[in-house]
Every structure is written in C-alpha cells, then in structure tokens.
Amino acid sequence: MPKRKYKIAVVQLNLNDVAENNLKKCISWVKDAASKGAEIILLPELYSSHYFCQSEDVANFALAEPLYSTSFIAFSELAKQLGVVIIVPFFEKRMAGIYHNSAYIIDTDGTEAGLYRKMHIPDDPHFYEKFYFTPGDLGFQAIETKKGKIGTLICWDQWYPEAARITALKGAEVLFYPTAIGWHPKEKDQYGENQYGAWMNVMKGHAVANGVFVAAANRIGLEQYIDGTDGIQFWGASFIAGPQGEILAQASHDQEEILIAEVDLDLQENVRQNWPFFRDRRIDAFGDITKRAID
C-alpha cells in the first residue's frame, strides 16, 4: 500500500552570499531538516546566489550552471545519504543564450525524479527576470517520488490558479513553491501588509480550490548590492498549508527556520469527498480560458 502520511519541510534562509557558501549552508540545513524527520525538503528559489535579478547585467549569467553539474552532484549525494527527497531550485544554463529558472526534484536514491522550469516570468522593478530566464517548456507536472507524488512551481507561478489546477489534476498531493519575494523598502509601510497578505492568500486559495497541501519557501534579509538603490527586503514568512487552507506551520519575517508538517492523504481524500470541487467543474464551459482576453 502507498504511504498515507509523510513529513515535508520548508527551509527559510538568508542566501545573500557566494555560491560556495550558500551550497554549504543549504546542505547543513537540509541535514538538520532530515534529522527532524522531514522526508521531502524544499529550498528557496535560486538557492545558490543573492537575488541577482535586481538589475539587468550580463555578468550575472556567470552564476548559471549546466544541468547535472555542481548543484545536482552535491544534492544527489545528500539525498541518497539521507534517504530524502530534495527540491533544489537553481539557475540553469541550457545553452549559450538560453537560461532557465529551474528546480531539480531529487529522489531518495539520488536520481532525478523530475525537472521543472519556471513557466511564468515576471518583469517588475528590481525583479527583472525576463532579462535572464526563458519561459519553461516542460509544462506543469506531478512527479512521482519514493515519498509522495508532488508538484513544483516557482515563485511568480504562485499567482496563477491555472498552474496550481493543472498540477493538482495530474495528481500532485503537495504543491511546492520555492520563492524569492520581498518588499521594496520605501514601499513597505504603505503597501507591505497588503502585498504579503495577497501572496499568502492566493496560495491558501490554491490549497482550498484543489484540495492539496501547499508549501512555500522564501528567503529572508535585505539584499542591497547595487549602488544607489534600496535593495529588496525579503519577507520570509514561509508556510505550509493544509487542503482547507489551514496553516500547519508558519515562519517569521526575519529568521532562518525549518518548518515541518505532516501530509495526511486520508485527510486530503476526506476533504475532497466533502468539498468535491473537482467533481463539479464545468469543463464543457472552460474553453475561453485559453484566450489572452475575451473581447
């Protein structure tokens, strides 16, 4: 029989350092999460560097790595050693001129269970991701691992119910969202509470609408590395929610932390039986969703 309960972990970190140090830090924190019983462990978006998308600078492409190189080798060995699944978000160099914001899903034996490339790419002040990342071409996926069937989406994907829905319809029990999101310091007092609240509420809505568990891992700290700018203050607040949007674990805005919660598939099934949103979907009437606008 498939396992009906397993523990997941979200790791919230300050990653404003060089790649070698960030790798060592993440390995240490993953080991700590595993020692606490975590079976699937999520790291924040673009774990290996500071959030370089605050500017458009071709020098930052040097931070990218080819598939199955440094990050994969290190975390593959670690996953096999610990017997856990690790979700590793990284800056992928696919070929000269084509780069992705990607995530490995590494299984308990160190093999690649799946690869996800971020589908929705933002372009906002100090979040200039379109300069760096080609939109993903692998689609939305539910990945079979030895611990559970999971889906990985990345940061800006958080705002799109279609991404969550398709991933859940493919059988994902948990939606994992590695994230790098924060406040512009000068805007925080006026807009900060609403921005953070919207971020959390939309993902809790995905949990409710799809009857899935949701886990989001954000980074923390002020990353101010460009002269003449205020940088980004990453707001942390990583969390794990259950299939009714209930908060199972919640991190602070400013501390490095590990969150652990249990995924209970019997609970998920019970919720879907009582709130049968999938049953009542009018798929015959949804054709217009594939249009850019309904004029």
TrEMBL record:
Keywords: Acyltransferase, Hydrolase, Transferase. CDD domains: CPA (cd07573). The keyword Transferase applies. GO terms for molecular function: acyltransferase activity; N-carbamoylputrescine amidase activity. Residues 6-265 form the CN hydrolase domain. Signal peptide: none annotated. One of its GO terms (biological process) is putrescine biosynthetic process from arginine. InterPro entries: Aliph_Amidase/BUP, C-N_Hydrolase, C-N_Hydrolase_sf. It holds the Pfam family CN_hydrolase. This is Acyltransferase.
